Amino acid sequence: xxxxxxxxxxxxxxxxxxxxxxxxxxxxxxxxxxxxxxxxxxxxxxxxxxxxxxxxxxxxxxxxxxxxxxxxxxxxxxxxxxxxxxxxxxxxxxxxxxxxxxxxxxxxxxxxxxxxxxxxxxxxxxxxxxxxxxxxxxxxxxxxxxxxxxxxxxxxxxxxxxxxxxxxxxxxxxxxxxxxxxxxxxxxxxxxxxxxxxxxxxxxxxxxxxxxxxxxxx
Length: 218
Prior knowledge:
It is a single chain. By secondary structure, this protein is mostly helical. It folds into two domains: 52 residues, Arc Repressor Mutant, subunit A; 147 residues, Tetracycline Repressor, domain 2 (Orthogonal Bundle), CATH 1.10.357. Helix content is 69%, strand content 0%. It is built from ten helices and no strands. Helix 7 crosses helix 8. The termini are far apart.
């Protein structure tokens, strides 16, 4: 049974974790050394090893904690749109997603990089995806109950939307977006994702536009 940390121990552990989150977001897992983390945290490597076995152990702890937070924050009931005109639902849901994943972007990037070669991190990555899929699947089923999207496969739409959000977020929040000529803002990101999600379920029910033009063309 692990010993309980003192207040100072918890603060030290959190300083290391915060440094890792920031550096993983900026440089990725492989581009971040243990020395980078300890220097950014203002701690020595010897102190690091009091709390973590190595850099992968640190990531596993961060990812596990983040996943627990996601599950706890959702609760037993998944919120659902009241109607095709419930713009507030989609904006609120995407805003919550965006805020949460922006704060934990480094974890998502690092887990994705290690998930490509290590099964334990691939499993964690799929747990993150399953969380998003469950919400989207429920929204598809709600839309179908309301008489929309009869031809949509809830499981396939859930996976497609989950991967869209994941990849859009990863690219949009890093320098890659600027390199592609996009000038990212949180407001534009939320509006874009909310519009795509809503129109996937309900179509263009209000003649909504994105930046003045219809999202899918004329």
